[in-house]
Design brief:
The strands form 2 sheets. The chain has a 7-stranded mixed sheet with strand order 5-4-3-6-7-8-9. Strands 1-2 form a two-stranded antiparallel sheet. 29% of the residues lie in helices and 28% in strands. The radius of gyration is 16 Å and the shape is globular. It starts with a helix and ends in a 14-residue tail after the last strand. Helix 2 (23-31) crosses helix 4. It has helices at residues 2-16, 23-31, 63-72, 90-98, 109-121, 158-162, and strands at residues 52-55, 58-60, 80-84, 101-106, 127-131, 144-149, 164-175, 180-188, 191-200. The longest helix has 15 residues, at 2-16. The protein is of the alpha/beta class. The structure holds S-adenosylmethionine. The site of S-adenosylmethionine has 26 residues, from strand 2, helix 4 and strand 4.
Length: 214
Amino acid sequence: MKYVRQRAEMVTRQIEARGITDAKVIEAFQKVPRHLFVNDALMDQAYGDFPLPIGEKQTISQPYIVAEMTQALELHEESRVLEIGTGSGYQAAILAEIVSRVYTIERIHSLFIKVRKLFDTLHYYNIRTKYSDGSSGWKKESPFDAIIVTAGAPEIPNSLIEQLALGGHMIIPVGNQYSQELIKLSKDEKGVYKANLGGCRFVKLVGVHGWKEV
Ligand code: SAM
């Protein structure tokens, strides 16, 4: 009950009050039990206005940035979405409440194993997971109506642009290792268009088309 109340407050104060208007996104935030996507010791902080550590030096993003990125994807129920950087699984679960099919890739094995169990426990059967470097995308399942990268890239990988369907949108943080700009790339018959949604700070996208491993 405590978490139901905290979740409702999070939606009102952090999501709606800051201008998220897509009813599908708001409903998804009302449903997904964010406290189950963090370690037990952090559950009471899960609905706070900040990112939290999830182990392996990775983070679950602040609720508002998850909402902003999700809304910017302009999703429909039949959209097929690719996420790079499964992390805690929270963003994928939000997507899975909105669309029919979510594909998500994580490069850290322990996070991948943990999240697969969680998706089973929470009955998210429309999420397909993959343990891999996602900076090259998931060619076999492409094209995707939307692509969301939840780690900061030095530049937009061409492979991801190729795997985006015509009429689709990609959201990706691009910049250096300390700060990035949130880029929305849209693709149609005439080409690709980029819009800058503002500054952000994500952990590194590590991979062939990202940063080198440290
Ligand atoms: N979307 C996540 C969530 O809802 O919890 C947050 C993601 S966290 C900010 C970034 C994640 O991207 C980390 O789990 C990290 O291991 C993963 N990552 C970084 N580079 C990657 C790559 N090349 N392929 C797949 N995952 C990657």
